[in-house]
Amino acid sequence: MKILVAVKRVVDYAVKIRVKPDKSGVETSNVKMSMNPFCEIALEEALRIKESGRAKEVVAVSIGPAQCTDTLRTGLAMGADRAIHVEYPGTLYPLSVAKIFKALVDAERPALLLLGKQAIDDDCTQTGQMIAGLLKWPQATFASKVVLDEGNKVATVDREVDGGLETLSLDLPAVITTDLRLNQPRYATLPNIMKAKSKVIKKLTPQDLNVEIRSDLEVVQVTEPPQRQAGVILSSVDQLIDRLKNEARVI
């Protein structure tokens, strides 16, 4: 069984985000970039499935500018067998990404497609669902546990919902998006990092996959959230109740 894993290059989660002066987006120049944390979880799950003997190959895929190769090298160092980079220098939105992945799935024929449930840069939480719709594959989102049956025909997925956990049974091939509590991603070891540097990353473009990139969204303006007001120390419970009742209006 082959597993395809989406990995996205994003601003590192520990970086303080700054809006560009022209308010066209966030500043990414001279900013530390890394693999999206949810994508790390998806890749870790694919590697665990392979290590259990249920899969023979894990292929990491990234779509974006040339710098995405660094993210793919990280994926290879973690244990991915191959990497594919679909190079596109412009801004990509979920539907365009989903169309590219559909074309890749048609070419690679994986039995399972794993993605993070969302990217921490745009928080769209749409790509996995759109890919499943285009492929007409079953899907399970926000997975907190994934179990494959003995014949790799069915995946049983626990997913987190507002009321607790929901368990789904999916016929493979399928699309699964991963949540935080699915696993703890491994660190790439130094020997594997060195080996990853010599591995070949397959280069493609949307044109190679016969995918036309059209912008169906327009970002009008990006602004920082308003500054939070400083807290107030109150001298009595009566004052607190008065503030909650007459100012906050929550009681």
From TrEMBL:
Complex and partners: Heterodimer of an alpha and a beta subunit.
Family the entry assigns: Belongs to the ETF beta-subunit/FixA family.
UniProt keyword Transport, yes or no: yes
Organism from which the protein derives: Salvia splendens (Scarlet sage)
UniProt-recorded name of the protein: Electron transfer flavoprotein subunit beta
Domain Electron transfer flavoprotein alpha/beta-subunit N-terminal, chain residue ranges per copy: 23-213
GO annotation terms (biological process): amino acid catabolic process; fatty acid beta-oxidation using acyl-CoA dehydrogenase
Function: The electron transfer flavoprotein serves as a specific electron acceptor for several dehydrogenases, including five acyl-CoA dehydrogenases, glutaryl-CoA and sarcosine dehydrogenase. It transfers the electrons to the main mitochondrial respiratory chain via ETF-ubiquinone oxidoreductase (ETF dehydrogenase).
GO cellular component terms given for this protein: mitochondrial matrix
Subcellular location as annotated: Mitochondrion matrix
A GO MF term: electron transfer activity
A Pfam family: ETF
Alphabetical UniProt keywords: Electron transport, Mitochondrion, Transport
